[in-house]
Amino acid sequence: MNFSTMNFLTMNFLSMNFLSLDLGPYAGFIWASYGVAASIVAALIAWLVLDGRRQARALADLEARGIKRRSA
User: Which residues contact residue 63 at a Cβ distance below 8 angstroms, ignoring those fewer than 6 apart?
Assistant: First the structure.
């Protein structure tokens, strides 16, 4: 890919206005689907962060009681 092709693709991508896409009669369903998918991904990320903190607290509690990891 040469520079002019890359520049053309970049300019087209940057000039797209996602809110003015013509999605036809199903636009509401499509946007709702994107919203649900984004919500699920956000919930999974939050769950991973919260579970990681819970696991770190449980590990710290075990180590404070004198129980050591066998792998360490």
Answer: 69
Backbone φ, ψ for residue 70 (5° rounding): -75, -25
Residue 49 in 3-state DSSP? helix
Q: Whole-angstrom Cα distance, residue 15 to residue 64?
A: 57
Q: What is the pTM of this model?
A: 0.60
Helices (H), the chain: 3-15, 27-64
pLDDT tens, position by position, 7-23: 665 666 556 666 667 88
* All residues at 6 or more sequence positions from 59 whose CB lies less than 8 Å from its CB, including other chains: 69
Burial 13-31 (b: 16+ CB within 10 A, else e): eeeeeeeeeeeeeeeeeee
